[in-house]
Amino acid sequence: MTNATIEDVAKACGLSRATVSRVINGEPNVKPLTIEKVKKAIAELGYHPNIHAQALSGGGAKTVGIMLPRIWRSYYSSLLSSIEEVAAQEGYYALIMAKDYLKNAERIFDEGRVDGFIFRNMDHVEEHERLFLRLRKRNVPFVLIGNPLRDYPAITIDNVGGGRAVAKHFAMHGFRKIVYLGGPSDNVDSNDRYFGFRIGFEESGMNPEGILRINGDYSTKSGYNAISEIMLTQKPDAIFAANDRMALGAILYLHKNGVCVPQDIAIAGFDDSYFAKYITPALTTVRQPFREMGTAAMKQLCSMLKGSSANPGKIILPAKFIVRASCSCPYSHDDSLDVLDAVENSE
User: Fold this and answer.
1) How many domains does the chain contain in total?
2) Contact between 78 and 290 (Cβ < 8 Å)
3) 77 and 152 belong to one structural domain
4) What digits encode the pLDDT tens for the residues 38-74?
5) pLDDT greater than 60 at residue 97
6) Same domain (yes/no): 253, 164
7) Which of 66, 80, 151, 159 is the most exposed place for a label (fewest CB within 10 A)?
8) What is a single Pfam family found in this protein's UniProt entry (predicted)?
9) DSSP letter, residue 282
10) Stretch 77-90: mean pLDDT
């Protein structure tokens, strides 16, 4: 049957239109047998609920807003994939916005387009704080990925532990003159990685004051430019970049100018981006569990949308230190052809 209506579903089930509507809108106190009967009829008839009518009747838009930074990163593919998998299981769609969402988030909620939000952008902390305060006052459900601000629900990784692991590894190699290539100065992830790096360096009996910190913007170009400036006045033993793209920029500059990595300068990054093990030398880095972050964030938001009164708090996922050749360690990778799949699929 084509263009089936809610009345058709009700007739097929032998139920009232109101009862079918309650099942579609996910209202409580409906018998499991009734829910099963309605879902079976919907599947057999090919009925598609009118989302706008559902929202107007108080059933919600069944859509969540995924708010991402304007600059696309390859790892968002795995992050979004895991979010969408959970969303589909829970009967939600994902609306992705990567432009001017700080201005538009409240508007799209007021228009009934979304029921809640997942935020990934960690820059412009004060502007995000103001938006989150307004959403909290209005009881709009939202979950943060990566930035554990205040007591807001958040899925984050152990940035401090990741930075600490890199520092201990650098100290084991005897590196003393270190450059920390960070992200924007107000970026929480970058600051936490730097904090952990200093802790690990000090725990290893090294002087953390010997770490020179410079800031980029997480782009490959900013890593290239930052190291070009540093090399005018000094030559570090090692560079720890707050993400893999800036580490790549540093490697490109050093290669271009006849500086050997890792023989002359060792390098480590953060993220374990899809290209990390394929560049020369393969990049030592810290792996972020992007799929697990997306899954946990969507599950947490769904729990809030279902009316859970429990404070979900923060979930901190472990970050794994991955040792490859760019830090002077032995490394062998013989899957040379799978780079084609990695690039095409972006993880």
Assistant:
1) 3
2) yes
3) yes
4) 888 888 888 776 555 555 455 566 899 999 876 666 7
5) yes
6) yes
7) 151
8) Peripla_BP_3
9) P
10) 91
- Answer yes or no: do 14 and 96 share one domain: no
Helix or strand run (H / E) with residue 200: helix 188-203
Mutual angle of helices 101-110 and 125-137, in 10-degree steps: 10
Average pLDDT over the chain, rounded to whole? 86
User: Residue 327: what residue type?
Assistant: C
For residues 347 and 342, what is the distance between their CA atoms, to the nearest angstrom?
Answer: 6
> 92 and 29: one domain?
no
Please give the Cα distance from 44 to 145 (Å, whole number). 38
Supply the range of the domain harboring residue 67.
63-157+290-318
Q: 225 and 243: one domain?
A: yes
**How do residues 277-290 score in pLDDT, each as one tens digit?**
999 999 999 999 99
**Model pLDDT for residues 19-34, shown as the tens digit of each residue:** 887 787 777 778 888 8
Q: Which residues contact 321 (CB under 8 A, 6 or more apart)?
A: 162, 165, 166, 169, 286, 287
Domain-embedded: residue 109: yes
DSSP 3-state of 30: coil
Q: Strands 154-157, 314-317: parallel, antiparallel or unpaired by DSSP?
A: parallel
Kindly compute the dihedral angle of the four CA atoms of residues 306, 308, 309, 314, in this order, to the nearest 10 degrees. Answer: -120
Structural domain includes residue 90:
yes
Encode 263-302: b = buried (16+ Cβ within 10 Å), e = exposed: eebbbbbbbbbbbbbbbebbbbbbbbbbbbbbbbbbbbbb
- Looking at 19, 39, 56, which one is the last position of a domain? 56
